[in-house]
Fold this sequence. Notes:
Blueprint: E1 4-10, H1 17-30, E2 32-39, H2 53-63, E3 70-72, H3 84-95, E4 100-106, H4 107-111, E5 127-131, H5 141-150, E6 151-152, E7 166-168, H6 178-186, H7 197-206
Parallel strand pairs: 1-2, 1-4, 2-3, 4-5, 5-7, 6-7
Helix pairs in contact: 2-7
Amino acid sequence: MKEIYAILGGNFDPIHYGHILSAEKLAKEISIKKIILLPNQNPPHRSKTKTPLKHKLKMMEYAIKNNNLFEISLLETKKKIFYTVETLKKIRSKIGFAKSLCFIIGEDNLNNLNFWKNWKEILLYVHLLILPRNGIKKYDNELKKWVSLHTIKNKIHLHKKSFGYIFFSSIPSIKISSTQIRKNFADGKSSRKFIPIEVEKYIFLKNLY
């Protein structure tokens, strides 16, 4: 049986309990040994991030302090434009093929996967772990066939093969928005229930939002 490592990418502006708790529940669901948090600077499909990278990284460090499940990778912070398939290829090259490697995305991102660069190549390096999102089922026909072809129902297969499958998690969606958290701070409202207290203190200290 293979150990499972997983990758969770995002803007993390700021990191919040939606990121952390979803990842922890997913780790329990399929026995993930390590989750690699992959912060980025400027995703090709989004506008430039508002918060300097050094502050996002510090907030992430506070959020996962003393939690051995997580580690942070700076791979997507080294250049302004990056493509997921290239990043996954580099991570796979680093850890080798003895381990099972999974890339965690929401079902909303899966719905748009066919717009990503070389999207079909992703499964050459990783499994896809899909977090449920309400009302997201409008796949492009080509994408729908591809998803159907590679989807597995039994999570045990993720421990038997290093890459190539799609698995839909059963954990409930946690509705927390980084955008709303930033707005709360800008409006002088509390976000204590959405983020770790050390992250909140750092945001106030640096007057980030």
